[in-house]
């Protein structure tokens, strides 16, 4: 279910606190290469005392759109020692950068939860173009957001810094397809035999156990 850079280009053009637990058998039986692959070298998380789960995604990715309503309730139920962050990829393209900029600006404005899935639907169902600043501002205005307040956010240093941090993470994790889920800075969900996103998230659950066990041993 990965969305590669090439597929990404085609779509964009077309659219213009928990106790330490032992590994349970499912986690112990995960197979490297089939269910997961290693992040090399391992990457530190934003919170050293937490297991960090990252979702690399883009609004331009139809698979990310399908994953979004599945991963959100899953993330809301993660244990207290696990944090979850979404990282919008840009792959160095201006259009994708504007989508990432839209994500962060909405996060800062407090409108992300309300409009998150609507962005996917606008792009993939309504074929709305959201690849330029002008297009983005027109769309957010249609959703009841004050453009005079939103535009400075969209072009702010804070948003630019977030995009640069995201690009750095994409490079360090060697992301070349989305959606991509990583766990604890050590593991990437592969899920070759996964029959759907719930199966992939079940693998992520087991990788969290592996990451917790790794932390306990270090």
TrEMBL record:
* A Pfam family recorded for this sequence: DSBA
Q: Where in the cell is it found?
A: Periplasm
Enumerate the InterPro entries for this protein: DSBA-like_thioredoxin_dom, DsbA/DsbL, TAT_signal, Thiol_disulfide_DsbA, Thioredoxin-like_sf, Thioredoxin_CS, Thioredoxin_domain
* Cysteine pairings via disulfide bonds: 61-64
On the tree of life, the source organism's domain of life is Bacteria
Q: Provide the alphabetized UniProt keywords.
A: Disulfide bond, Periplasm, Redox-active center, Signal
* Thioredoxin domain span: 17-159
**What coarse category fits the chief subcellular location reported for this protein?**
periplasm
Gene Ontology CC annotation, any one: periplasmic space
Indicate whether Repressor appears among the record's keywords.
no
GO terms for molecular function, please?
disulfide oxidoreductase activity
What does the sequence similarity comment in the record state about its family? Belongs to the thioredoxin family. DsbA subfamily.
Q: Which PANTHER family match?
A: THIOL:DISULFIDE INTERCHANGE PROTEIN DSBA
Output this protein's name: Thiol:disulfide interchange protein
What is the phylogenetic placement of the source species in the record? Bacteria, Pseudomonadati, Pseudomonadota, Gammaproteobacteria, Chromatiales
